[in-house]
Design the sequence.
């Protein structure tokens, strides 16, 4: 399967090399240069040029140190015009051929190929998403959560996986012009019970009090400013112990890896003017919005950042219930007793789990979950004082 997906997008990698050769880029990279220096020399648009340079690093033709780029040994030998092994004339010829290949269907078929409508687009996404959704839902533990909002949920593949795995009430937010395609796919899959809300997530109200928000393959078509707006709106829409899950092609902070993410940045430049973003960029927006405790997760073909919205002033706010006992006697049983005590009081049991994650021993992928994380006896010797605060205060 992966071979087919790779071959289907292989033209992108080919064009990256052909464009670089056509503009003699490698001739200027025998010495390390920054994007801005190179953009000036080549009369190029700096932001777009940087994406091209990062993709060339991802493909192994150039290297990046700090913010400077230089040729790899292979590029110095084959792609610099003064080299006796120069292949650039051939690549320039191939680049002219690229435009001709774009007309291949016209040379063979009488009718132009079908235009892509919204449903085709969502089906295209779904053919990948449906195969990868379980991996994401397994990787992000939403045990104990009751609701999820999937912003720009598309075919619903990811919302379905989370809803089925954790028995959540899921809401997909989709643009009015796409929502009917979403509903059609849910119908074809025989999935009932997932709400499709027609709204623009950058402008419209999409509800409040969700336990989790999923932002899958969204940030790459938005600008930095739009992503900031989106995460602020998500923060406001989440319950006090809510989590945000950002799933995308997320770059290393060097922005040159993983290879697919560096190449996809150029695809998005051409599609929406967006690009792919790095771990740190995503976390910075989340932090600005108020989220905390970030977790980075690597999946087989994509990456995830999970951020948590803690109850504001959790530790300092006045307590409504207090308990004091030696931590060594705090067992799974006493913890779940405390949880049910909270439930009886009409408060959110998951708040207790959230509070516990701020303690040094409560970390790891189950942090935030009250159901399965805690060992039978906690290895803590000190006395702990815990105070539980109603979420509504
Ligand atoms: C690239 S697709 C991602 C779909 C899905 N989340 C996934 O990971 O497969 C982006 C989706 O976001 C929707 N979308 C784009 N802008 C939106 C907006 N402002 N409000 C709501 N949905 C939006 C599009 O209609 C599209 O279905």
Sequence:
């Amino acid at each position: 399967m992966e071979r087919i997906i790779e071959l289907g997008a292989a033209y992108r990698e080919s064009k990256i090399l052909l464009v670089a050769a056509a503009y003699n880029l490698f001739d200027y990279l025998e010495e390390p240069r920054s994007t801005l220096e190179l953009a000036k020399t080549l009369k190029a648009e700096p932001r777009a040029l940087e994406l091209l340079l990062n993709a060339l690093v991802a493909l192994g033709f150039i290297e990046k140190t700090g913010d400077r780029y230089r040729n790899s040994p292979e590029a110095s030998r084959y792609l610099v015009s003064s080299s006796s092994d120069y292949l650039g004339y051939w690549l320039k010829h191939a680049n002219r051929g690229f435009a001709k290949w774009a007309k291949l269907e016209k040379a063979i078929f009488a009718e132009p190929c079908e235009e892509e409508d919204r449903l085709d687009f969502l089906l295209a996404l779904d053919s990948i998403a449906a195969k990868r959704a379980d991996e994401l839902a397994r990787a992000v533990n939403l045990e104990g959560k009751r609701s999820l909002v999937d912003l720009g949920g598309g075919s619903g593949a990811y919302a379905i996986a989370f809803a089925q795995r954790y028995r959540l009430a899921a809401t997909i937010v989709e643009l009015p012009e796409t929502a009917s395609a979403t509903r059609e796919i849910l119908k074809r899959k025989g999935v009932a019970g997932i709400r499709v809300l027609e709204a623009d997530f950058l402008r419209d109200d999409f509800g409040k009090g969700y336990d989790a928000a999923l932002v899958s393959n969204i940030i790459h078509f938005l600008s930095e400013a739009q992503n900031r707006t989106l995460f602020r709106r998500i923060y406001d829409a989440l319950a006090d112990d809510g989590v945000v899950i950002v799933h995308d092609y997320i770059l290393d902070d060097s922005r040159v890896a993983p290879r697919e993410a560096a190449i996809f940045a150029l695809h998005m430049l051409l599609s929406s003017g967006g690009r792919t973003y790095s771990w740190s960029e995503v976390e910075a927006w989340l932090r600005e919005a108020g989220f905390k405790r970030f977790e980075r997760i690597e999946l087989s073909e994509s990456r995830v950042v999970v951020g948590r919205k803690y109850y504001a002033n959790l530790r300092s706010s006045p307590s409504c219930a207090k308990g004091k006992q030696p931590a060594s006697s705090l067992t799974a049983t006493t913890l779940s007793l405390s949880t049910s005590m909270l439930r009886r009081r009409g408060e959110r049991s998951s708040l207790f789990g959230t509070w516990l994650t701020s303690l040094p021993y409560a970390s790891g992928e189950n942090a935030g979950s009250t159901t399965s994380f805690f060992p039978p006896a906690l290895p803590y010797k000190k006395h702990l004082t815990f105070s539980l605060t109603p979420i509504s205060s």
